[in-house]
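Me: I keep going back and forth on a fold encoding question. No explanation is needed for now; the record alone will do.

Assistant:
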Amino acid sequence: MFDTIHEECGVFGIYSKERGPVAASAYFALYALQHRGQESCGIAVNDDGVITAHKDIGLVPEVFNADVLKKLGEGNMAVGHVRYSTTGNQSRLNAQPLVIKHVKGKMVLAHNGNLVNADTLREELEMGGAIFHTTNDTEVIAYIITQARLNAPSIEAAVEKAMEKIKGAYSLIIMSPQKLIAARDPVGFRPLCMGRRGEDIVFASESCALDSLGAEFIRDLDPGEIVVVDKNGIRSLKGHCKGQKGSLCVFEFIYFARPDSVIEGASVHNARLRAGAYLALEHPVQADVVVGVPDSGLDAAIGYSRQSGIPYGIGLIKNRYVGRTFIQPSQAQREDAVKIKLNVLKATVAGKRVVLVDDSIVRGTTSARIVKLVREAGAKEIHMRISAPPFMNPCYFGTDIDSKENLIACKMSIDEIAKEIGVDSLGFISTDSVRRIAEGARCGFCDACFTGNYPVETPVNISKDKFESKISAKND
């Protein structure tokens, strides 16, 4: 219904020296990571080698209640996952974490990202007799690891071997009967950090999940690093680390991450403030009030206001109780749904020249609906400012930025987009500026969706939707 971008998922893992309520810890961490995936979620608990899991479609509080958490019981390790699908359809089978039983034992796997060679690997595995139960590429990773485990001396050695075959974006949490393992792809597309709560070691996609548990942030995993936690302590394997800064998806700072998270040493909140400031410098305008589109447009709007001197106002109120499953079929019903999810404070915008700040424009339909709401509330002028450059290329690494034919910036000029969505002027942050928003970040950035400069080889001569449907269709 809303043509906003989405990130695939969030992962969490905890290792405790003592048996305890690790499922509850995973529950609270997933609650903190809910923004990263709202289709399905799951938790798996390890109690002395006995693995109990529960997962389903829905939000964290819908899937897990007191009775479910009680049935998961206590243990010394747990893995959690929240999912938004970019490959694989929406079904309970595609929910994670995956629980795998193989000849060398058991394994639990949670994955954030997308493989660019998932289709090739799946075909190879199927030709070797593999039977897939899901339509996502996480099961491909599970097969590659279990294959490697047949000859590897340990689960971490199998993960090292598997990383030679899988290509693309992956932040992984892997649990065996005795070990908890976290791994990040050599490019570092997706974030993954480590923390400590007393004697417990925790891993999460974002530091806000550590904060929710009262855990102390230790550090981000390096691109290509594998961290192993067991009864002997913590070990780091860096055979796949390239010694480079990596290429974290820049949209973690623009949109995906919670503003209270710190990624690669940079505050997400401050990065969005800086994005707004750059917008004000690059696209100044005479106006009366700056309004942000909830949620990720709010910080950028504050930054625009501070830099420009134009007062900031709360102009759009978001209904927090409308989930992403609230979808209506007809055009009129979809427009009504926008009004239910967002309402305009007329006192803020009526008779005013409004700077409307949002994080992105994908197809333009949602932007047009929001602009229409603000117009109907009495805005005299609307000047839209976007804290990301125009999308010119699809993403193959876990973000659902679509094929070129579905991106409005590939079909229209900026002036034409402005006319299409009904604004008086439109400005996007420059690519040079967006690379500088995360002040102090210890990483480089992937900005291929703007520039087309992909850090790794991507599928050629095939549109993104066909690439993803090839992966999904095999088991549909």
About this structure: The longest strand covers residues 9-20.
